[in-house]
Design the sequence.
């Protein structure tokens, strides 16, 4: 739950790159309704939300369901963090944070929950796109059931595009999401990685069926 849409979308994108499915709620009421539905493996909860704040939402979640709660807060006072943990939050992460730290915290809390309960989180283990199969647990990619070798950035770029089919992303947007906002480099590297991926997964890289160019806009993934 995050009321700043741009921040929420960056958080969602990095989590989806790592094989997780996410739903965004931008106000306390809608977020609480989703959280107590029992459909989620973890709740990522900003403290400052319109409607109900994070403290009240944490209390109500704990009255209804048993799910890890990771609080996101811009507050720096230890008393505020202690209050959140006292109401039932499992962990907290303070803004500003890097997306990679967020992913690591989410994975750590899910792993701890699994150890305590014996229940595994419901990640989407595989994505299928025609003759392309992506196993998100092993980070392996198969084309016509033959494994292909991808470098780390190539894999992350492919997984992100395949997780968001038919959405057009500009070079700048892809660079920000895959390489990170603080990375040093040129967005031309996106085109280089796109071409490498096409060489590895497309039947005819000159006429790609999966990773398509939308002229003047960017790239999209088609199933």
Sequence:
């Amino acid at each position: 739950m995050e009321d700043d849409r741009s921040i929420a979308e960056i958080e969602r994108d990095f989590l989806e790159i790592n094989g997780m499915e996410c739903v965004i709620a931008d106000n306390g009421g809608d977020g609480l309704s989703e959280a107590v539905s029992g459909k989620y493996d973890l709740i990522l909860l900003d403290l400052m939300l319109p409607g109900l704040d994070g403290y009240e939402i944490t209390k109500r979640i704990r009255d209804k369901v048993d799910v890890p709660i990771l609080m996101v807060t811009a507050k720096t006072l230890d008393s505020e963090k202690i209050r959140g943990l006292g109401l039932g939050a499992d962990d907290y992460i303070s803004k500003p944070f890097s997306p990679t730290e967020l992913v690591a915290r989410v994975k750590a809390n899910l792993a701890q929950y699994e150890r305590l309960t014996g229940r595994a989180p419901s990640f989407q283990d595989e994505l299928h796109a025609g003759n392309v199969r992506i196993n998100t647990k092993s980070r392996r990619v198969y084309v016509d059931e033959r494994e292909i070798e991808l470098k780390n950035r190539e894999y992350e770029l492919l997984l992100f595009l395949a997780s968001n089919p038919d959405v057009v992303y500009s070079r700048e947007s892809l660079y920000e999401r895959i390489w990170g906002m603080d990375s040093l480099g040129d967005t031309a590297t996106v085109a280089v990685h796109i071409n490498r991926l096409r060489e590895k997964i497309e039947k005819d890289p000159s006429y790609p069926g999966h990773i398509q160019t939308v002229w003047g806009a960017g790239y999209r993934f088609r199933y």
